[in-house]
Amino acid sequence: MSHLIELKKSIEPFKNILRNHPINSYIISHEHLSIFMQNHVFAVWDFMSLVKKLQVELTSVDALWFPKGSGETRYLINEIVLGEESDIDPNGGYISHFDLYLRAMDELAIMPPPALSAFKQFKSVEEFLIALPSFNLPTSITDFLTFTFSSILNGEIEEIAAIFTFGREDLIPEMFQLILDQLSIQSPDKVKTLMYYLERHIEVDGGHHSQLATSMVSQLCQDDPKAWKRATDAAVNSLQARIKLWDGILAAKG
To answer: Residue 204: its pLDDT value, please?
Structure first.
């Protein structure tokens, strides 16, 4: 428990920067919302890749199945995958959070960046990282994606879990609550799907998933100080990448 407390102390200054970042009061028009979503959608997408990398590493996903890792870590990541990849949609069906985000963009007549569709051509993380600079995306997005997928490619499993937990899952509910408060006093009918998306993140990620993910990091690091140091550094770097992404969105506003 002391290792986890120390990790949380280490990341707190960076979380405070994000809590007080100007992005939290940025969305005051449809133009601002468009810029935000066209940038943030990349973080929604690469988040799913972090989820799937954890599932691949912590569970058996081969047709010839054998137990892999502990039952507890398998349960933790499988439950998270279930919620992120096939959550309940507003009509009672099932949908991934990424597809729900794209649906919200469509409802708002906000076009997703063409690069998202083009990414489907790549068959490996290595291939994607090599080609990424050629898309000429804003530097803040390129750097954000490079950090995520370099970590997926080369990071230790506890580093990837820490990025997921403390740079994403643990952060998203706080940030989205501020945005949701702003949207709720504007035109709620025009942002119905986006409101639902944000509410699901706050409900799911703010409670159950956050607890599961934190337990997963603790399970992976155990009492190994070196593992906790790697996890802490990865969490800090992830938060710094998010700060730069937010800075890039503000710069795009002009």
So the answer is: 66
- Residue 239: its H or E element: helix 225-253
pLDDT for 4: 95
Amino acid found at 166: F
Q: Which two tokens stand for residue 30?
A: 């449809």
Quick check: helix, strand or coil at residue 181? helix
* Calpha distance 81→61 (Å, rounded): 13
pLDDT digits (tens, 9 = 90+) for 113-161: 999 999 999 999 999 999 999 999 999 999 999 999 999 999 999 999 9
At 194-238, the pLDDT tens digits run 888 887 777 766 566 677 888 889 999 999 999 999 999 999 999
Q: Report whether 7 contacts 158 (CB < 8 A).
A: no
Q: At residue 60, what are phi and psi to the nearest 5 degrees?
A: -90, 120
- As given in the structure block, the two tokens for residue 31 are 């133009």
SS3 95: strand
Residue 207 DSSP symbol: I
Mean pLDDT on 14-27: 87
State both tokens at 84.
């992120």
